[in-house]
Amino acid sequence: MRSAPKRISLRELLNRRKSLLSEPLNRRKIGRYFTLILLLVSLLLSGCAQNSGTPADTGEQNEDINTGEENGMITSAEWNKDETLRILTIGNSFSDDTMEYVYQIAKSAGVKKIELSNLYIGGCTLATHAANAKGDLPAYEYRTTNSRGGWSTVNNYKMSDAIRSKDWDFISMQQASGSSGIPRTYSDLSYMIEYVRSLANDGAVLVWNMTWAYQQNSTHSEFTKYESDQMTMYEMILSAIGSKVDKQKEIKTVSPTGTAIQNARTSFVGDNMTRDGYH
After folding, report:
1. I want to staple 218 with a disulfide (CB 3.0 to 4.6 A). Which of 149, 158, 267, 277 is the partner?
2. Which of 233, 254, 178 is nearest to 20 (CA)?
3. Is the Cα torsion angle 152, 154, 158, 162 positive or negative in sign?
4. 216-243: buried (b, 16+ CB within 10 Å) or exposed (e) per residue?
C-alpha cells in the first residue's frame, strides 16, 4: 500500500535536517518581502500563516530563526526603492505554475508595481538551460506580465536578453520536476549561477524554487525514478536540494513550494492539488 500524504511541520524539518524552510533564513540575507510573496501561498496552504513577512509559528521559540531587520536582512526599502518588484524565473511549466498568482498576492500585500517574467521551455532541465546559455540560443518562450497582471508571450527569446532586460530584484532557478530529486543532475548548477550572475544587475538576488512531488496516482513517465511513491519523491527532492543547492552561497534562499504542496495535501483538499497528476 502506498504511503498517505504526510504533513511536514517546520519543527520536524528543523529536527530532521537542515530545514529548507528555515536554515537559509538563519545564515543568509534574504528578501523578507520576497519570502512573503512566494511563501505566503506555502504558509496559507499549510495552515500555519501567522503574519506577513515572518516564518510560520511552530508553537515554540526558536532563537535560530531570524527574520528582523536588525539581523541584516534585505528589507522592502532595499529592493523597493523604485516601488517596483521585479522577478525573473528561469524554468519550465513548474515555474509557470509557481508564478501564476504571484502578481495578485504581491498586489494584495501592497506592492505598487509588479513586473514578472518567466523563461519557459516545457520540461526544461538544468542541463538544457546551461546548453542554451553556452550557445546563447533563442530557445525560450518569454512570458511577461502587463500592468494588470495578465500574461503575454514572445517566442524565440534568449536567456541573456531576458537577464539583461531589467534590473531584477530576484532571479529564480529550478530543476525539471522529474530530475529534482536526483543529485547527479545538478552538475550544471554552478555554471548557471556564474552565468546568471555575470549578466544580472548587482542587486539581483538569486533564489531556488523547490518543485513538488507528483500526485500519488500520477502517470508521469519519470515517477518511476521515485518508486512511483509521492513521499519518496518528496524526501529525495529535499535531500538533493540540501546537498546540491543549499551549499551554493550565491543562492540566497530556497522557496519551499514543494513543502507547501505536500502540506496542503494533508488538508481537506487531499491529494488533489494537480490538474494532471503533476502540474
Report:
1. 277
2. 254
3. negative
4. bebebebbebbebbbbbbbbbbbebbbe
C-alpha cell at 206: 538569486
pLDDT digits (tens, 9 = 90+) for 118-174: 999 999 999 999 999 999 999 999 999 999 999 999 999 999 999 999 999 999 999
Do 230 and 270 contact (CB within 8 A), yes or no? no
Q: Rounded CA gap, 154 and 162, in Å?
A: 11
Q: Which of 241, 238, 230, 237 is nearest to 264 (CA)?
A: 230
CA–CA distance, 15 with 18 (Å, rounded to integer): 8
Burial class (CB in 10 A: 0-12, 13-18, 19+), 120: buried
The C-alpha cell of 219 is what? 502517470
Cα R_g (the chain), whole angstroms: 18
> What span, in angstroms and rounded, lies between the C-alpha atoms of 10 and 54?
13
Q: Which residues face 153 on adjacent strands? A: 143
